[in-house]
Design goal:
Pfam families: Usp. 43% of the residues lie in helices and 21% in strands. By secondary structure, it is an alpha/beta fold. The chain has one domain: HUPs (Rossmann fold, 3-Layer(aba) Sandwich), CATH 3.40.50.620. Strands 3-2-1-4-5 form a five-stranded parallel β-sheet, sandwiched between helices. Helix 1 links the parallel strand 1 and strand 2. Helix 4 packs parallel to helix 6. It is globular, with a radius of gyration of 15 Å.
Length: 146
């Protein structure tokens, strides 16, 4: 049984499912929901939303705290404690580094289950985490979502 579980959390349905899966599967573990504020890189950074270049603005942190609120509510509904953490940078890099640096026993990541060209075009944080993490990774995909 794992003692410390990291769940990357972005407020999506797959992230909610991953958190629920972590609570059910690792009933005695300490669970942390990690949100990574993505910093736009290079050319695309000029076209995306408000300025969130380093250091991350207070407004971006407030948004991240609000985004984590459903995770806290989900934990409370299941009578579970939940730690939360906010980092900034490239999500897959930050998830892998944080799990390793902080000594997590496993990462439970949600996946949309996209395949083929849609996955290539949209990218996949889950896939990058699985490929690069020295920490064991569980990919949780809701079987009811097609």
């Amino acid at each position: 049984m794992s003692d410390r579980i990291l769940v990357p959390y972005d407020g999506s349905e797959p992230a909610d499912y991953a958190l629920e899966f972590a609570f059910e599967t690792f009933a005695d573990a300490d669970v942390t929901a990690l949100h990574v504020i993505q910093i736009p890189e290079g050319y695309w950074g000029a076209f995306e939303g408000p300025d969130i270049s380093p250091p991350v603005t207070e407004k971006a942190r407030e948004y991240a705290e609000e985004l984590l609120e459903p995770a806290r509510e989900l934990a409370a509904d299941r009578d579970r404690d939940l730690e939360t953490e906010i980092l900034s940078g490239k999500p897959d890099d930050q998830i892998v580094a944080y799990a390793e640096e902080e000594g997590y026993d496993a990462i439970v990541v949600g996946s949309h289950g996209r395949e083929g060209i849609s996955r290539v075009l949209l990218g996949s944080v889950a896939e990058n985490v699985v490929r690069r993490s020295p920490t064991p990774v569980v990919v949780a995909r809701d079987p009811d979502v097609k």
